Each structure stands twice: as structure tokens, then as C-alpha cells.
UniProtKB/TrEMBL annotation:
It comes from the Bacteria. This is DUF177 domain-containing protein. Residues 191-216 are annotated as: Disordered. The lineage of its organism: Bacteria, Bacillati, Actinomycetota, Actinomycetes, Kitasatosporales. Residues 191-200 have a biased composition (Basic and acidic residues).
Amino acid sequence: MNARLDHRNPLVFDTHELGRRPGALQRLTRTVSAPGAPAAFGVEGVIGVPEGAPVELDLRLESVMEGVLVTGTSRATAEGECVRCLEPLRLDVEADFQELFSYPDADDRGRTAEPGDDAEDEERLFVEDDLFDLEPVLRDAVVLALPMQPVCREDCPGLCPDCGARLEEDPDHHHDAVDIRWAALQGLAESIRDGEKDDMSGDAPGSARVDEKQEK
């Protein structure tokens, strides 16, 4: 059995004043705080609306035969990391949504029904004791409005793939291309030169000893 809705929750709305007369309308504006995990408004590790950040809501509630039709717009500021340069970013997000919250005593054809009567109830949202919880609808709308690949700006040059330097700070940054076949030969040549230097440094003392014997 589901827990009863708490009217003190800012994302729980009371429809008592709206009533059940089809066609009745009610408009609401409310600013709420974004929840944290596990109901966070965002994609973990990518971008999201920080916990406690303000979310502005403009709502239109309409009483229909089956329940309460909620149409709304949310506005918030998301924070994340640019996928190209890895710098922090802030992004204004606006999300539109619409959802029908069904009365528990009537299905979508106006017939008597109770929550749990069929598998479709798992996907339906209900008005309970004249209250409905907007959180799951709002969370889905905000998450879908967020970019999956956020960037600080469209032309962000990102990072150097070779050394990780920020190309924004050094537009002329580059590395000389080296053919890996020549790189191997260059390494071999350097090893030979190092060996020759060692031989030359080792011969000098021997020659000096020979000269000393000849003088004696």
C-alpha cells in the first residue's frame, strides 16, 4: 500500500478548491527546491539541477471527467561539466509537461475502478484525498530537457588529445607529427650514439697508461 501524500511537501498540490466539475480551471505559480538523490533532477555525473536550487513552476489545473489534467512549465538552472574542456558550466533549463492524474474511483472511460486493478495502474498517477504529487512528472520533464552532452559553448575547442592542454587558452597549440616508423629508427640511432660516447670515454684512460709505459 502506498504511503499517504503529505500536503506539506511543496510538490504535492491540493485540488480541493478546483473541485470535480468538468471544465473547472485553476492556475498556480510556485517556487520549489529541487530534491536530492534518489529523486534528483539530473543525470548523475553529467548535469543536473543542484539539490535545493529554486525551480519555478507555472501550472494550469483542469478538472476533467477522469481526473485532473495538469499542464505546466518549469524553469531552473542546471550545473555540470563541459564534455569537451571539462570546465564547470551553468545552463538555464525550461521544461514543459502535461499529465493526467486520475481519480481513484474512475478509469479513463469513466467506469468505477480502483488503483491496482490492472497492470496499467503502474504507469498511471492518481489523485489521493484531493492531493497529487507532481515530483515524478517534473523530474522526468527536467531530465529530458537536459543535454546529454553539455558544452560550455557550441564552438568550445576542448582539450589537446596528446597532452590535455586547454585549447581555449592556447589556440596555436600543436604537436609536431612524428611517423612511428621513423621514431623507432631515431631511438635506435640515439642508443648507438650513447654507446659510442661510452666507448670513447673508456678509451681515454687506457691510452694514457700506454703513453706512460713508453716514456719509462
